[in-house]
Records
---
Amino acid sequence: MYGNDFAGPDAGSDGGLLGQVEAAEAALRAAALRGRVEGDPAALQDYFDAVIAADQKIEPRDWMPDAYRRGLVRQIAQHAHSEIIGMQPEGSWITRAPSLKRKAILLAKVQDEAGHGLYLYAAAETLGVSRAELVDMLLDGRQKYSSIFNYPTLTWADIGAIGWLVDGAAIVNQVPLCRCSYGPYARAMIRICKEESFHQRQGYEILHTLSRGTQAQHEMAQDAVDRWWYPSLAMFGPPDTDSTHSAQSMAWKIKRFSNDDLRQRFVDMCVQQAGVLGLRIPDPGLRWNEERQAHDFTAPDYDELMRVIKGDGPCNEERMAHRRRAHSEGAWVREAAAAYAAKQQEVVPA
Ligand code: BYC
């Protein structure tokens, strides 16, 4: 743990915000010193616990429990793979976008997703695993990617629905990850969320245009929302009662909110936006609950989610076949880059 994130207006050396941060840092430094000087594993654990309790960041050079490291590699790698596989359903529409402007926007969005994958692989590498190992784990099925990318994009309106709903769900899920306890992941998420927010708006704008177009365009937009609604709700994962990692992940402040809390937040956000779009959310059970100050809604089919996660979704095979092909066709690029890097190292400075 190192570095101050900010110096706020009420910063000061005593009672101000910065003073409190300094006091927390001093306590953490003392705990770290005890761990190092005495070589005591319990003291290292104390230091780790104190960093988490003080809402500070764990950095790559800090000691961390093995399970924390493994859990982060699992989540960050799964997230990175999702960004890379997530390029496929939209990528297939770049040549079919209805205008040059739409093509350019979609191309930029898909490129952003490649960038997100790369920041996330880089964040995972700080935990001592290489990108090549992570890619191998995706290709041989030991690691997953998000269920959502196993659904097909049938019409241009699907690109709007992905932007509005899928990127919208991604933002709701990922904004809290900007405060995740692992520094490199939290920092990668800040830029990713800024870009996701543009992505969501471009999808919203596509649907807005279609919804106010001809009757056929309006129907195409509604059909896309009908098909993407429940898979988007399922992106948040199984219900809290069945979530295997949530409790530990929240104790370590990797996750800040439970799957169900984020799902609820997403539904509440979408209801108002659907009204502006003039589109209907395909859930007859959707209604405002005055007592809970939130919407009641029909949960997605979690059996379907589990089937899709296990490989039995409409497009799992196609997505993985495409990824394997792209990986083997890219072998010469990786070899050329490695040969060039080796040559650069041989160059003796004059
Ligand atoms: N799909 O204990 P749980 C994007 C798995 S990228 C597949 O609740 P956790 C975007 C889970 O891994 C979208 N698997 O897990 C990109 C676990 O299995 P394992 C990706 C899922 O980790 C391009 C098991 O079910 N976003 O948005 O506490 C274009 C039990 O679940 C899913 C991220 O990766 C699922 N939907 O919570 C546009 C965000 N749900 O690993 C958009 C970061 C659950 O034990 N990740 N599983 O075999 C997270 O926030 C969390 O990992 C999750 C799951 C909320 C996804």
---
Amino acid sequence: MTQDEMKKAVAEAAVEHIKPLLESDTIIGVGTGSTANLFIDALAAVKNQFAGAVASSEATAERLRGHGIEVFDLNSVDQLAVYVDGADEFDPHMNLIKGGGAALTREKIVAAVAKEFVCIVDSSKKVDLLGEFPLPVEVIPMARSYVARELAKLGGLPVYREGVVTDNGNVIIDVQDMEILDPKALEQQINNIVGVVTNGLFARRGADLVLMGTPNGVEELR
Ligand code: 5RP
């Protein structure tokens, strides 16, 4: 099985997982990235069974609309039954690194509102300790250099992601070689740096369920 086939298998498994939640007034949260895109494509088959979705990025909103799935503003929604999204890394405690696609802030907001967070990944994303994937941090542009210096004090090597502007008009710093022994504490510590909008650690609100595509099929991890 190729990586793309594993991603497609988890995307389809996620649709099967959420089917019992779908009612005429159900609104779901949808993430960003290549695995989330495959989920959106699979979701199109059941689009008449629920009201619509809240998107975690402009790209996701466009893809949902392309399939005829209504996109709601999060401010008009009280609760999301489920949020389905990919990840760049996940550990055995369901902590994640996200933001490889620069959508981390909206992803974190939509995940916060959802009752259940279903993370869809292929087996290459599984790690014992987070941090091999550089940790993305969304930053207000004028604070970029200051935040980079503060991130260096925490032991990481900050690298400006050239040419990327987020949907919120901000920039991304990727932190390499960060030792992430306590993901919840580090998530909070980075959030406390003035100028940081969000960081890509999803530990305080990690995944509730990981669906992982492997060459032998989809595994459910809780
Ligand atoms: C985007 C993300 C994605 O979920 C993450 O980058 C994984 O993407 P893919 O499914 O393409 O591997 O956090 O900001």
